[in-house]
Design a protein that fits this description.
It is a single chain. The chain is of the alpha+beta class and 264 residues long. Helix content is 27%, strand content 18%. The strands form 3 sheets. A 5-stranded antiparallel sheet has the order 3-4-5-10-7. A hairpin with a 2-residue loop joins strand 8 (244-246) and strand 9 (249-252). Helix 4 packs parallel to helix 8. Mean pLDDT is 88; it is low at 14-24.
């Protein structure tokens, strides 16, 4: 589909490109892309087989705190399903897989082989999907060995492990996708960016049946947001994100998310 191709010309603009900036984790980086497609739609994705794993690529911008890193993973999943257009989840990103270190004798990517060791290529983001943590090759294949080796730590994030954990990233993605499918504004509504300052990224998704306020705290510190401009805003029925609220002020924790139903 022509309307769903990657806009590589947008990614390459500016110093190091939009996705190369350390400030992409701030709201104005996302605003650049949203504004570029104000009159159309885009297929949103965070990871592909040509870039390092999402988990490893953005971890260096986050504080050394596993609670914050987990909160950011959940925020990104919520943002991905809330933006206007389609969304693609690259295999393994829903498990929170990290970039694999592939030894030279196991590499398959011609680009990486030619550039080794200065360029390690793309094999590190192309390793097999781990389905079962205690099965040979994580149950990806019955062959003697897979096309690329599976890192040991990926077994701990296998599907069967995360299936059983309600708070796992995999189940977070599942619940958010299910919730998205029940929201008319997210499925077919327009998007209006809000002019609020950093570090909040805010927008309203709206259609004739629904108006949904979407707020994302792109910082590790709690932020207070004034809802007085949005009278009769009620917390949406998305049950995974918790926020404290006092009258017209809502507190978003570090890397927190707030969804509010607005009157139509």
């Amino acid at each position: 589909h022509v309307e769903a191709v990657f806009p590589l010309d947008v990614f390459a603009r500016g110093e190091n490109g939009v996705f190369g900036r350390t400030d992409f984790c701030e709201s104005h980086g996302a605003r650049i892309l949203i504004k570029e497609f104000a009159d159309g739609v885009i297929c949103w994705t965070g990871g592909t087989h040509d870039f390092p794993r999402l988990k490893s690529r953005w971890r260096k911008f986050l504080i050394e705190d596993e609670f914050s890193r987990e909160a950011f993973d959940h925020l990104f999943a919520a943002l991905l399903v809330s933006l206007r257009g389609g969304c693609c989840i690259y295999q393994g990103d829903e498990l929170g897989l990290t970039q694999a270190e592939i030894p030279y004798d196991k590499m398959q990517d011609p680009f990486g082989i030619a550039g080794y060791p200065q360029v390690k290529g793309r094999d590190g983001s192309r390793t097999p999907m781990p389905w079962q943590h205690n099965a040979p090759h994580a149950s990806f294949t019955t062959a003697a060995e897979p096309w690329l080796p599976i890192p040991e730590d990926h077994y701990h994030h296998a599907v069967d492990v995360q299936d059983k954990a309600k708070s796992s990233l995999l189940n977070k993605y599942r619940r958010l996708i299910h919730w998205r499918n029940q929201q008319p504004a997210l499925r077919r509504g327009k998007l209006d960016l809000l002019p609020n300052p950093e570090p909040i990224l805010g927008f309203i998704r709206h259609c004739p049946e629904q108006r949904l306020l979407c707020l994302f705290n792109l910082s590790p510190m709690p932020i207070h947001f004034d809802l007085s401009d949005y009278p009769n805003c009620e917390e949406a029925d998305e049950v995974d994100f918790t926020n404290r609220r006092y009258e017209d002020t809502v507190e978003l924790p570090g890397y927190g998310v707030f969804f509010g139903q607005l009157p139509v």
